[in-house]
Design brief:
There is one protein chain. The chain has a 3-stranded antiparallel beta sheet. A two-stranded antiparallel sheet has the order 4-5. It has 11 helices and 5 strands. By secondary structure, the protein is mainly alpha-helical. The protein has helices at 28-55, 60-88, 94-99, 113-121, 123-128, 133-141, 148-153, 166-169, 190-206, 209-223, 233-253, and strands spanning 3-7, 10-14, 20-24, 101-105, 155-159. Strand 2 (10-14) and strand 3 form a beta hairpin. It starts with a strand and ends with a helix. The longest helix has 29 residues, at 60-88.
Length: 254
């Protein structure tokens, strides 16, 4: 089971591989923009229904039928949109996907259907009965950036876009005369190097040496190499990234 800890504006998920990864919590602005995007979809739906009614205007019975169908479809989507999207789109609505945020359980796992259902039911409190004021206030003041529905369901929203981008850690300028210490790093992929960099960033923010030691051990086992006697775990990880950068940059210039 994954454990989760909150620090400032990030949430730390302790994975089943004993690696701590920080995810940035979605702030109030992200949530509001995602909701506005979803709202625009409903506006487009209304416009579409209006166009269909106009087209059927010459036939009174057909026009009335179109109005009735439009009302039913709109009402159903308005009520169940978020619940259906989050269940079948991995914790995202269309707006959340555009904003690159998603619902996550506080235990680090994907929320259950029951959790999605709870946070959906409490939309009545967060938005309907309070004209969205309850949701806005609780997200703004809570440590985990949760609305009431999230607090009850044990969920929050995180940003899905990784804090570490490959163009910031790979293909950096390197000494052409540099000799990689571990040529085995060529077996790594971009995501694994991102993960190493995330661990180093987590250490810099928290001072947690355990996460560095665990990652160094995982890389050592994965590549079947050992840190040099003069290297500690952090130096080992830095060397791995430096070697990877050099080898990849050399490959791209060939």
């Amino acid at each position: 089971m994954n454990n989760i800890f909150v620090s400032m504006q990030t949430i730390t998920v302790h994975t089943s591989q004993n690696i701590d990864i920080d995810y940035e919590v979605a702030d109030l602005g992200d949530r509001v923009l995602a909701r506005l995007i979803d709202g625009c979809l409903f506006v487009l739906l209304i416009i579409l229904c209006g166009i269909l009614v106009i087209i059927a205007g010459g036939y009174e019975s057909l026009s009335n039928l179109m109005v009735l169908i439009g009302i039913i479809v709109y009402a159903s989507m308005y009520v169940f949109y978020d619940l259906i999207c989050e269940i079948f789109m991995n914790g995202q609505s269309i707006g959340k996907r555009v904003r690159k945020i998603k619902v996550i359980s506080l235990d680090g796992a994907q929320p259950t259907v029951g959790q999605y259902l709870l946070r959906w039911l409490f939309r009545i409190v967060d938005f309907t009965f309070t004209s969205s004021l309850c949701g806005l206030i609780t997200v703004a003041v809570s440590d985990k950036k949760q609305r009431v529905g999230d607090m009850v369901a044990g969920t929050t929203l995180i940003k899905t876009e990784p804090r570490t981008q490959m163009d910031k850690i790979a293909f950096t300028s390197a000494d052409l005369n540099y000799e990689p210490v571990y040529t085995e790093v060529s077996q790594l992929n971009d995501r694994e190097v991102e993960l190493i960099h995330e661990v180093i960033q987590t250490y810099r923010q928290t001072g947690n040496t355990v996460v560095v030691f665990n990652m160094a051990q995982k890389i050592s086992e994965h590549l079947r190499i050992q840190p040099k006697p003069e290297m500690d775990s952090l130096q080992f990880l830095h060397t791995i990234i430096k070697d990877y950068n050099h080898i990849i940059s050399q490959e791209t210039t060939l």
